[in-house]
Amino acid sequence: MKPEIVYKPAMIISGLILHTSFKDDRSKREIPPFFHNVLEEKKLDSVPGRINGNQLCVFSIKRDKPDFDYLMGVEVSEKDFSKGMEHINLPASKYATLKIVKRGPEDVGKAFEYIYKKWIQKSAYIPTGAPAFIYYDQDFFSVFNEKGYQGNPQATVYVPVKLLAIKQILKFFKIF
To answer: pTM of the prediction?
Structure first.
């Protein structure tokens, strides 16, 4: 399991937001029902300006803060403020991506933990601090809509990264 580095252009994400926290495992109790409610009630299906059928779950986390925002949304061509949706601009960035089988929040947590705590430590990259997200495309929905989690649907975790200057130099001289 090794992340790939990909570049994604800037995106505007429009969706519904959940204010939650890592404190007392609150996010583990709140995110799954929120996620399934949005999917089951098709709350994002008619978002104006929607670009494709994919969905994202964006984590806006501040370093050393337990509270964070979880936005479940879709890519849009422009912000539409008339529908009560929240918006986030994701900057153009390089991302460490990891394709996972997603059967529940534990799989997502393990993927983020692997990227942040293991892979980044040994790579020439550091996190940018911009929001990370999970990308749900046809690989997820084609399986999930027919078989649920038992079908082992796949999603992709995206962590925004940049090369660390000293790591670049060491890599150039083949020291790292």
So the answer is: 0.89
